[in-house]
Amino acid sequence: MKIKKADDVEARAVETDGADGVTIRLLIHETDAAPNFYMRQFNIAPGGHTPRHVHAWEHEVYILCGSALVWSADGERPAAGGDCVFIPPNEEHQFTNAGDDELKMLCLVPKDSG
């Protein structure tokens, strides 16, 4: 078993094309010998956003705090601290910070998601 503080994990800038004001912390990852799933924390600055993207795996997102607009082909929907978001495989999506405070969210993905 491992227990660690999220704030003790290095935050790295997301430098993917289309990302703005986003950092990632690899909370539970290959260095923890996680056999099936990885847990990542994304922080998005006010006005920032993840890239609009699509991938073959599902992921689950839990909004820790802040306000988001979650874009999909069906349009934008609001989400905020305490909300859970399920992104099915092959659904294009994007998270935008819609508030004045930092948006923090956990993202769970399969180990083999790249």
Describe the structure.
The structure is a single chain. This protein is an all-beta fold. The strands form 2 sheets. It has a 6-stranded antiparallel sheet with strand order 1-2-3-9-4-7, with no helix packed on it. A 3-stranded antiparallel sheet has the order 6-5-8, with no helix packed on it. It has no helices and 9 strands. The chain starts with 11 loop residues before the first strand and ends with a strand. Strand 5 (67-72) and strand 6 form a beta hairpin. The chain has strands spanning 12-13, 20-28, 37-49, 59-65, 67-72, 75-80, 84-87, 94-97, 103-110. It is globular. 0% of the residues lie in helices and 52% in strands. It has a single domain, classed as Jelly Rolls, CATH 2.60.120.10. The relative contact order is 0.27.
Annotated CATH architecture: Sandwich
Number of strands: 9
Structural class label? mainly beta
Helix/strand order, N-terminal first: EEEEEEEEE
Question: If you consult CATH, what is the topology?
Answer: Jelly Rolls
The tally of helices reads 0
Query: Into which percent range does the helicity of residues fall?
Result: under 10%
User: Proportion of β residues?
Assistant: over 45%
Low-confidence stretches: none
Mean pLDDT: 96
Strand order, main sheet: write it out. 1-2-3-9-4-7
Shape: globular
Rg from C-alpha positions?
14 Å
User: How many structural domains does the protein architecture include?
Assistant: 1
Terminal CA distance reads 24 Å
Assigned CATH class: Mainly Beta
